[in-house]
Amino acid sequence: MGLVLSGPDADGPTLVTFLKPDVDPHDDPTRVVGRRTSYHGDEHPYLRGHTVVVTALLKDALDVEDCDYLQDDDAIRAAGGVGPRDRVEVTPWLEDKGRVSFVTSDPRAIDLACFADLDTEHGGEEPAEKERS
Fewest C-beta in 10 Å: which of 2, 10, 109, 118? Predict the structure, then answer.
């Protein structure tokens, strides 16, 4: 994922092209990268209830600042898989366009529906909706 600049040239201005994450979205529970799921946390309210696609795992990111950034399932398996102290990099799934967004966020793994069972604080269940006053 990144940004590509081209130009300027004699024919026109500089062009900016945003590259979206290179993932193949799927619903296979045995794979992490590309996994389509929904976000149910509070850290990223703009994602709440939306479908997202996992692009990478930030291993032990809740405990250490310099964490491993893992982008393929073999590396994730070798690091022990997804755990409750991990963050995952996700990108919104744009259903109407049939693709992922170029924007990414890094929620806690346990805030994704597919990893909610890792949340030992809430017994592996999605926390109850907070009451609003």
Answer: 10
The model's pTM is 0.75
pLDDT in tens, 3-39: 444 455 556 666 555 555 667 888 888 899 999 999 9
Q: Please give the Cα distance from 130 to 133 (Å, whole number).
A: 10
**Helix, strand, or coil here: 110?**
helix
Contact of 56 with 68, CB cutoff 8 Å: no
The H or E element that residue 19 is part of is strand 15-19
